[in-house]
Amino acid sequence: MSQHRPAGASGRAGAVPALPDLPEATVARLPEYLRALHNLAEAGDDTVSSEGLAAAAGVNSAKLRKDLSHLGSYGTRGVGYDVALLIHQIEYVLGLTHRRAVALVGVGNLGHALAGYAGFASRGFRIAALFDADPTRVGEEINGLTVRHIDDLLQTAAEERIAIGVIATPASAAQRVTDLLVAAGVTSILNFAPCVLAVPEGVDVRKVDLAIELQILSFHEHRKASLTALPGGRDEADPDLAATGTEDTAAPAPVEPAPPGRTRPTRTEVVGS
């Protein structure tokens, strides 16, 4: 669970009411519910059933009802959920009732695109500062902000009351940037660099690796191709299997004993090397 940092060097406000300790899977789905609710509100809908909201968010209704019960929201039988009230509840739990300042470090191709994305403002976030170590990029203006040198991060984080740091640097620079963000009192980091960051206890890191996502999709493509390689599937390729419904399982070959004084090595599988 993420830890709340008391007011200190960052200058942010202190104690807040305790929030429920939600399951990580529930927290991950709340933004999907919120997006669907905003779409419903824009369409003029005042209420929504659990089935309707679940369909809009792409989950099953039982899971949605369980998630929302963690917030103390159970809806009204025969009516459903009040859209405006549920938006407020989810925004409160996600800490979106006030806009959070974000520092973006690394304004290469990806960072440049993130800095110019207008959707952050409507989701409760403000890109407050841009940083880079490349002298050719320092001083550049992106979406109304001037890129500052990374050496200015500590001072700027305090001045802008930075709540979240976004890392869009090469992997070789990501740990140094992380250390600077932590030193500045930032305890929430979104990492786009393809590496694992070392952080102290109480610092939350979310990793977004687009290459990994593509590799996962590649697995699904590979699997679909393997399933459709034979037109009739496995049963057509093996008539005996289709007729009996069982595989012909031969007895395993005997294992040859190891020479005296030696042990036979065990089989090791390497996953995700």
Itemize the secondary structure elements and their pairings.
Elements: H1 24-42, E1 47-48, H2 50-57, H3 61-69, E2 81-82, H4 83-93, E3 100-105, H5 109-115, H6 119-122, E4 125-132, E5 141-142, E6 145-149, H7 153-160, E7 164-167, H8 171-183, E8 188-191, E9 204-207, H9 210-228, H10 233-237, H11 239-244
Parallel strand pairs: 3-4, 3-7, 4-6, 7-8, 8-9
Antiparallel strand pairs: 1-2, 5-6
How would you describe this protein?
The chain has eleven helices and nine strands. It has helices at about 25-40, 50-55, 60-70, 85-95, 110-115, 120, 155-160, 170-185, 210-230, 235, 240-245, and strands at about 45-50, 80, 100-105, 125-130, 140, 145-150, 165, 190, 205. Among the domains are: about 25-95, Arc Repressor Mutant, subunit A (Orthogonal Bundle); about 100-210, NAD(P)-binding Rossmann-like Domain (Rossmann fold, 3-Layer(aba) Sandwich), CATH 3.40.50.720. Strand 7 (about 165), helix 8 (about 170-185) and strand 8 form a beta-alpha-beta unit. The protein starts with about 25 loop residues before the first helix and ends in a 29-residue tail after the last helix. The longest helix is centred in the first third of the chain and has 19 residues, at about 25-40.
Summarize the structure.
With 273 residues, the protein is α/β, with parallel strands linked by helices. It has helices at 24-42, 50-57, 61-69, 83-93, 109-115, 119-122, 153-160, 171-183, 210-228, 233-237, 239-244, and strands spanning 47-48, 81-82, 100-105, 125-132, 141-142, 145-149, 164-167, 188-191, 204-207.
